[in-house]
Amino acid sequence: MKEALIIFRKEIKEILRDRRTVMVMLLIPLLLYPLLFTGISSFVQGQEEKASKEGLIIGLASTGEEEGFMAFLKDMPNIRYTIVDSEVGKIEEMVKADSVDAIFLFPEGYREAVEQLEPISYHYYYTSTNNEFKVGQIRELNYAYQQYLTARKLDELAVNARVLEPATAMDHNLASEREQFGSVIGGIIPYFFIIFCLMGCMYPAMDLAAGEKERGTLETLLVAPADRVQIYIGKFLAVALSGFISALAAITGILISSRMIADGQSEMSGMVEMMTGLLEPVSLLSLLGILLPLNAFFAAITLMLSIYARSFKEAQSLITPLMIICIFPAIFGMLPGVELDLVTALVPILNVSLGAKEIIAGTVQPLPLLLTYLSLIGYAVLALVISVRFFNNEKNILRG
Q1: Is residue 168 included in any domain, yes or no?
Q2: Nearest to 4 by CA among 217, 244, 237
Q3: Whether residues 157 and 206 fall in one domain
Q4: How far apart (Å, rounded) are the C-alpha atoms in residues 275 and 377?
Q5: β-bridge mates for residue 102, sequence order
Q6: I need a labelling partner for 138 at 20 to 30 A (CA). Which of 38, 244, 289, 373 fits?
Q7: For residues 308 and 228, what is the distance between their CA atoms, to the nearest angstrom?
């Protein structure tokens, strides 16, 4: 084992000398996520405030039936209106040209039909490709007009508005804020640490096997006073440590960015509770219990493919598709209705995504989680055994 540790220290030094690997392993997840998430959050908040200040410009088709809507708009803040042509073709052109935010068209006989409670429809035109915040304002304006018509008609008929809602339903969501936030965004966090765990293993594995072939140093290492298994263990531990650190850096970056986004925003208290719960010893140990065998699995697979490759470039072409393969089950784990059970706990990568999501939300069940641990350990051991046998094959090591 002493020889394996010597090789391990040697490989760690090789990794630390590679700036690209260090950037992928540490700098990108630690710096990119806080900058990216806080930047997006600030931009969205700024766009929302900008749309609120600008208000809406509403076009009213000149059909002679728009006076009632004009009276309604006078009491609405940040709303300006203008009279436009009632021809549908011209209405569509104006909206697509962004001359106005929306145009309301009330057909002939509209007011009379409303007064007589006869069935009638009005139309409003907008484009959903415009500022999403303005689209929301347009829909809220239309809903407010519907409420306005209803209230006015009930007042005319001297009918109590309670007739529309004889009883008020009081809903009680028994899920904690952590559970609610975790079920919505909890799937995003494992997606990132799965990707960075793989990326943290990829570059060291390519350099420590295929890279050594290109440099001509692998043969020298093979004649050292250490057997093949010890050499492999040294390389495997270095690759696994790199992937583990990269995944931890990704989680740390997400925690930092989440804290930065949530500070000072009361509506984000659920996110704070979710992140605080993630730092609890039980949650942290549960997450590490998933991460460690996953990391060993990735380290064994990437090292095996890199050993087979003739060059660093070929190793890239062999290992890169592995990332694409891992993305799909990770994304599938984000879909609503997909939960960790006795079946999904056996599906590699998917069980990591679902298990981590439920750990983050605090809703994990012991039996599926235990099965997830066992299956991940099984896959990691299987990959490790295959990879060791692959490394012991002279044809693979000296290929090319």
Answers
A1: no
A2: 237
A3: no
A4: 27
A5: 58
A6: 38
A7: 15
Residues 130-170 have pLDDT tens digits of: 567 788 888 889 999 998 888 888 888 888 877 777 887 88
Range of the domain at 103: 55-161
Q: What global pTM score does this model have? A: 0.70
Question: How far is CA 345 from each of CA 10, 205, 212, 366, 371, rounded to the nearest angstrom?
Answer: 37, 28, 38, 12, 6
In degrees and rounded to multiples of 5, residue 341 shows phi and psi of -135, -170
Rounded to an integer, what distance in angstroms lies between the CA atom of residue 207 and that of residue 212? Answer: 6
Which H or E run includes 252?
helix 228-262
- Residue 343 CB neighbours (<10 A): 11
Higher pLDDT, 344 or 157: 344
* Nearest in space to 69 (alpha carbons), one of 148, 156, 151, 150: 148
| Confidence class for position 184, pLDDT limits 50, 70, 90 | low
Please indicate, yes or no, whether residues 190 and 305 belong to a single structural domain of this protein.
Answer: yes
Question: How do strand 102-105 and strand 123-125 relate by DSSP bridges?
Answer: antiparallel
Last residue of a domain, one of 127, 161, 195: 161
> Contact at 8 Å (CB) between 268 and 260?
no
pLDDT in tens, 78-132: 888 889 988 888 898 888 888 888 999 999 999 889 888 888 899 999 987 756 7
